[in-house]
Amino acid sequence: MRDLSLVFPAYNEEARLPALLATLAGSAEEDLAGARLRLREIVIVDDGSSDRTSELVSDAAVRDPRIRPLRPYSEHCGKGAALKAGIEAATAELTLLADVDLSTPLSDAWRLSEAMREGGEPIAIGSRNVEGAMVIAPRYRRVLGAGFNLAVRALTGLRFADTQSGLKLLETGVARELVREQLTPGFACDVELLLRARMAGHPVVEVPVSYVHDDGSKLRVAPSSVAMTRDVLRMSIRLRRAGRGGRRIRRLEGASRA
Questions:
Q1: What does DSSP assign to residue 85?
Q2: Rg, the chain, Cα only
Q3: In total, how many domains does the chain have?
Q4: DSSP letter assigned to residue 26
Q5: C-alpha of 138 from chain center
Q6: Kind and range of the H or E element at 37?
Q7: Interatomic CA distance for residues 175 and 25, integer angstroms
Q8: Is 181 a member of any domain?
Q9: Is 253 within a domain?
Q10: Which one of 37, 38, 133, 237 is most buried, counting C-beta atoms within 10 A?
Q11: What is the DSSP letter of 48?
Q12: Contact assessment for residue 186 and residue 78, using Cβ atoms and an 8 Å cutoff
């Protein structure tokens, strides 16, 4: 079995955290063991929340020593910034990125872990849009998601069916390399991660997962998709200009924090 750091970004998640914490205290370790993953730590990154998120996570850490509360920012910086902080704090051999709502359950981690073992890739990403995926979501979410994916393909040349699924498994050293000079602090961070993997020559395997839409999601799809597409365009231009050599690029000004 390989040691695992589990990383969750959290922003104003007071309402959804109790369900997550109950899962972490209950079935999480068994679910991950089924993927041949040994849960070493749970890093919950509070992205400048203004509700009781920080208090709930701190209280849970007292009960469960595996939980590591992290509050790197005094104000909201975005999902990408939170994931970067979580990845940099991770100490295990592998890092699993997941969403607080667990719309894709931890029990699907075996799909990613098995694919990495079979193919030797350092990165495996869940996908809601490849054969074998099971998705329960409103039609408008599917349509807008498909439109964003088409935009990502046109702007970046990436050919993944789903860049935005929350469940991603990475070798921790590779993950740190990919976020070191992160440009986009918001939801477009997933696209940047995969673009940087391509630039660095790290192969990525995409595998089907299950997904159940959560109405409590912080993502407002229509306005966020516009902002994310703008961020993807600006980021892809800067990365292309930087070239495979990967010279240092400053963080995007005005990038979406959503």
A1: H
A2: 17
A3: 1
A4: T
A5: 22
A6: strand 37-46
A7: 26
A8: yes
A9: no
A10: 37
A11: S
A12: yes
**Core vs surface per residue 179-217: b (16+ CB within 10 A) or e:** bebbbbbbbbbbbbbbbbbbbeebebbbbbbbbeebeee
Cα(10)–Cα(32) distance, integer angstroms: 21
Residue 177 in domain: yes
Alpha helices, DSSP H, located in the chain: 17-25, 28-33, 53-63, 79-89, 109-119, 139-156, 172-179, 189-200, 221-242
d(CA 102, CA 94): 19
| d(C-alpha 50, C-alpha 74), whole Å | 9
Q: Which two tokens stand for residue 5?
A: 């750091």
251: in domain: no
For residue 232 the two structure tokens come to 């993807």
Residue type, 158: L
The string of pLDDT tens digits covering residues 137-180 is 999 889 988 999 999 999 999 999 999 999 999 999 999 999 99
Measured between alpha carbons, how far is residue 123 from residues 105, 108, 138, 195, 241 in Å? 18, 15, 29, 12, 25
- 42 lies in which domain range? 2-242
Query: Would you state the structure tokens that stand for residue 28, as one six-digit string?
Result: 């999480």
Torsion angles phi and psi, residue 6, rounded to 5: -105, 125
Distance CA 212, CA 166 (A): 12
Identify which of 45, 41, 54, 42 has the alpha carbon closest to the alpha carbon of residue 10: 45
Q: Per-residue pLDDT tens for 1-51?
A: 999 999 999 999 999 999 999 999 999 999 999 999 999 999 999 999 999
Q: The domain that contains 171 carries what CATH number?
A: 3.90.550.10
